[in-house]
Amino acid sequence: MSSLRRRRRYVTLAAAALASALPAGCGRPSALRLTSYRDPYFPETFDVRLDECAYCLGPGSDYHIVGRALHTPADGGASVEQLVYVHMFWKPWPGKTFADPTMVDATIRYALVTEQGVAVYSGTGFVFPRQRRFSDELLVEIEDARLRVDCLSGEPPELLGAARVAGRLRARHDAGLAVDLRRRVELYAGLTSAQQQ
């Protein structure tokens, strides 16, 4: 298979993974909406549902929320993994915190991993957490975040360019899973940064 045909196949597969609606546990999916401005005149929207989502608290009581989706095509082709990592370093208080549409309280990383390569996007945004009553589940509203390509490794499909992200994450308190997924995101970001130098 020629490299051009292989690249087109991965772009199609990655686009399908971005647009796929993957089921999540307990019928309560975490969902993101990514709006790509790769072509500023014709923005594209992709909806992503995450298979798993977990959070843990850092030493300064900041939140680390991480989600993952794995899409494997029915024809047995290569899988596509998507990871999102939200580090909320400041917590707004309803009715007490002055709200401004340009406020930022979180950094966000999004990784798209294919057999062909890895693309890592980074940015900032405004995130609002809410603890569910009688549950360890944390509802996290990503009201508005902006991402850009941070680093690339190999020849991953470049689908997003500059992008906006919004959505809701339903994360359970699971420090082990949150730390594991966070390390995966940081590993991909570190590997891609090192290869670009």
How is this structure best summarized?
It is built from two helices and nine strands, in the order αβββββββββα. The protein has 197 residues and is an alpha+beta fold. The chain is globular and about 45 Å long.
SSE topology:
Elements: H1 3-19, E1 30-36, E2 44-50, E3 52-57, E4 63-71, E5 80-88, E6 106-113, E7 117-131, E8 137-154, E9 163-173, H2 175-196
Parallel strand pairs: 3-9
Antiparallel strand pairs: 1-2, 1-9, 3-4, 4-5, 5-6, 6-7, 7-8, 8-9
- Principal-axes geometry comes out as globular
Number of strands: 9
Counted up, domains total 1
Main β-sheet, spatial strand arrangement: 3-4-5-6-7-8-9
Mean of all residue-level pLDDT scores:
80
Instruction: Tell me the radius of gyration.
Output: 17 Å
Gap from first CA to last CA: 30 Å
Q: Strand portion, in percent?
A: over 45%
Word description of this protein:
The chain is α+β, with helices and mostly antiparallel strands. The chain has one domain. It has 2 helices and 9 strands; from the N terminus they run αβββββββββα. It has a 7-stranded mixed β-barrel. The longest helix has 22 residues, at 175-196. The protein is globular, with a radius of gyration of 17 Å. It starts with a helix and ends with a helix.
